[in-house]
Amino acid sequence: MQAVSPTATGVAFLARPGRPAVVARTLVELAGPTRGVVELPVRLMWNAERTFDLADPDQLLWMYENVLRETTRTEDLRVLINGRTLRRVWRLLNLPRGVRQAWESRHRGLRAA
């Protein structure tokens, strides 16, 4: 089996093998909640416990990591991720290299966040 280079397929960064990372065009369009409890759809979180209390810093990070890693839709980013919060927690997120590189190449300000 021959490996295919991501650049040969036109995909610069992968969230996981065979799946490109999804990145919002701007951080401003990310208007997700900043408080309360959020329940992720099954397509983003397969665990039975899919609710996250955004007041708990660990739960907020866990939710953001799951959404950024698992989404295949920019609409998920718009409704679940908040741009200001993302900038604030960016360095704390445990993300696959491809996801981090995709976001930082599009939003250079995240590198310094």
Put the structure in a nutshell.
The protein contains 5 helices and 4 strands; from the N terminus they run E-E-E-E-H-H-H-H-H. It is an alpha+beta fold and 113 residues long.
What do you see in this structure?
By secondary structure, this protein is of the alpha+beta class. The protein has one domain. It is 37% helix and 10% strand. It is built from five helices and four strands. The longest helix is centred in the middle third of the chain and has 14 residues, at 57-70. It starts with 13 loop residues before the first strand and ends with a helix. Mean pLDDT is 89; it is low at 1-11. This is Transcriptional regulator.
Descriptors:
113 residues; alpha+beta; two-stranded antiparallel sheet; 5 helices; 4 strands
General shape? globular
Q: Got a strand count?
A: 4
Unreliable residue stretches: 1-11
The secondary-structure element order is EEEEHHHHH
Tally of DSSP helical segments? 5
Q: Which sequence of strands runs across the widest sheet?
A: 1-2
Intertermini distance: 40 Å
**Strand coverage percent:** 5-15%
How would you characterize the largest beta sheet? 2 strands, antiparallel
